[in-house]
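Today's session is about reading a structure prediction critically. Students often jump straight to the picture, but the first step is always the sequence itself: look for stretches that repeat, for charged clusters, for runs of hydrophobic residues. Only then move on to the predicted structure, which in these notes is written as discrete structure tokens rather than atom positions. Here is the chain we will use throughout the hour.
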Amino acid sequence: MPRVSGVDIPINKQAWVSLGYIYGIGPHNALTILEQAGITPETKVKDLTEAEVNKLREIIDKQYRVEGELRKEINSNIKRLIEIGSYRGSRHRHSLPSRGQQTRTNARTKRGQRKTVAGRGQKRGATKK
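Below is the predicted structure for this chain, in token form.
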């Protein structure tokens, strides 16, 4: 498996799909990188020469912020929002969606599993209608 930006990319997939395994590179960036390197996107990674792999490494290292560097930047941006006390920062602090989505229902991915709370639900002695 070729190693690009500290990530082993799969060899049995097309080049543009394999580049998507690198954090910070999506389909659009992958196609742009392959175009700059002069590689057709449908080429399987196992068919790439060592020179082509090195060219991909070079382009990614010089022009793109990926993996650890990008993760650090995103985390520092979130910490900054929390420190300055912005609305978005407070949403991050309380593990709630920060872009206006509803939370009465849904938002399970962000909030985690349901927590059972005593005293919620049907009262004792209450009859169903």
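Discussion point for the tutorial: The CA atoms of residues 91 and 97 lie 6 Å apart.
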